[in-house]
Design brief:
heterodimer, A: 233 residues, alpha/beta, Rossmann fold, 2 domains, 3-stranded parallel β-sheet, B: alpha/beta, two-stranded antiparallel ribbon, 11 strands, globular, 4Fe-4S (chain B)
């Protein structure tokens, strides 16, 4: 049972990617109802609260924090195995607030996404520092857009060259796990735009194997963690 | 007392709803092109959490100095044709995270707009983080008296990016910021081995 919470208030991409654009949130006695993609996958995003896809959410920090609190307090998620929280780029209000509001419960950790080039790694090192500062465990780093295989000649190109060693080197230096590398597959963008599951649309893609392997590593981390928790109790 | 922006002829903002589409790269290329045609350019890096501009000009280790008029921007070359201001120059260590809430970010943005001694510039390019929040509201408010020329919006082709940019267009409309145009970045990739063009980030 999975819940996906989109706290990118200014740029909510999750509704479109899940094929849920245009859906609205329903209220009931037990709170806000998430929008369900499937019986075991519920989604919440500010995108569902806007009347038009062109509506801009021009809010300062405090108002964004208020909505994030509501998402956590008023959404009737039911019993869930995994709550995945998608965040905007940065180390600001949304990030501080979500960690703060979830501090009463237990956060397994953060999965940090980067692309291979130094300009990206530069920001990701800051994000890793943010996690240390707020005592958020890091499950690991994913290197996205890691190489592109030309569909015609099958040669590989590094579109975002890892001039400083990519995520691999950074992870070694900062003693953080590299969960995996995902290559660029034009089908990924297409599937997201159409709101369809890339994993179902392109099961043979090398990107699919990468995703699956990364997801498995995350699940193993979470399972290990709970086992250790239970041992302590 | 003469304002620090009095000698700046044109102010341009580079915006995008979406992260990772290439705002900082486009800001940099724009500055370099303008310099190539003989203009004096400044770049104000308003991305406080992820300041990319210093590294793009290879001056990430530079320090910022004070003068009577405020902060002296960092010059990227002896010609002094491109000058920069970024929080990147104010960090003790390059990996230091700026973990600030809105009000603190707003205060620094106001300082960046008012207290940098730009001198005479043909163009001041303002690079922004993704979104439509504190940094954007504060930047537009602080720059309003100086009548910015307008905004350039950057996107990549896929719908998920365009969706965010449509919101950014709404932001511009609501804040009275003229949109000079939209740049579609990462628009197709030409394979260096066989010259086949692939639309990695979709088309349209």
């Amino acid at each position: 049972q999975v819940a996906l919470l989109d706290i990118d208030i200014c740029g909510p991409s999750i509704p479109k990617m899940m094929g849920l654009e245009g859906e609205q949130v329903h209220q009931s006695g037990s709170g806000w109802s998430p929008v369900y993609v499937e019986e075991n996958l519920g989604v919440m995003s500010v995108g569902f609260l806007l009347s038009s896809p062109d509506d801009a959410v021009i809010w300062r920090g405090p108002k964004k924090n208020g909505l994030i609190k509501q998402f956590l307090r008023d959404v009737d998620w039911g019993e869930i195995d995994y709550l995945i929280v998608d965040t905007p780029p940065g180390t600001s209000d949304e990030h501080l607030s979500i960690v703060q509001y979830l501090s009463a419960t237990h956060i397994d950790g953060a999965v940090i996404i980067t692309t291979p080039q130094e300009v990206s790694l530069q920001d990701v090192r800051k994000e890793i520092n943010f996690c240390h500062k707020v005592k958020l465990p890091i499950i690991g780093v994913v290197e996205n857009m890691s190489g592109f295989i030309c569909p015609k000649c099958k040669n590989e190109s590094q579109i975002f060259p890892p001039t400083t060693g990519g995520a691999e080197k950074m992870c070694q230096n900062l003693n953080v796990s590299l969960l995996g590398k995902v290559p660029l597959d034009p089908q990924i963008g297409k599937s997201c735009d159409k709101g369809q599951s890339f994993l179902s649309e392109a099961p043979e893609s090398p990107a699919t194997s990468s995703y699956r392997s990364i997801i498995q590593r995350i699940q193993e981390y979470c399972d290990q963690h709970h086992f250790q928790e239970e041992k302590i109790i | 007392e003469r304002s620090n922006l009095a000698g700046v002829r044109h102010i341009l903002l580079v915006l995008s709803g979406k992260g990772g589409v290439g705002k900082s790269t486009i800001s940099t290329e724009l500055a370099l092109s303008l310099r190539h045609s003989g203009k004096k350019v400044g770049i104000l890096d308003a991305d406080l959490c992820g300041p990319s501009i210093p590294r793009m000009f290879r001056v990430q280790d530079s320090d910022v100095h004070q003068c009577d008029g405020g902060w002296v921007p960092v010059f990227v070359d002896p010609d002094k044709s491109i000058s920069l201001m970024s929080i990147g120059f104010l960090l003790e260590k390059p990996d230091d995270a700026v973990v600030w809430r809105g009000p603190k970010k707003n205060a620094l943005i106001k300082q960046f707009v008012a207290d940098v001694a730009w001198g005479d510039l043909d163009f001041l390019i303002v690079d922004t983080p993704p979104g439509t929040s504190d940094e954007h509201i504060s930047t537009v408010e602080a720059l309003r008296p100086y009548k910015p020329l307008g905004a350039i919006l950057v996107t990549t082709p896929q719908a998920v990016a365009v969706g965010d940019v449509r919101r950014e267009l709404t932001f511009c409309k609501k804040t009275g910021l003229r949109v000079l145009g939209i740049v579609e970045n990462m628009s197709g990739f030409v394979c260096p081995h066989c010259s086949e063009c692939t639309n990695i980030f979709s088309k349209g």
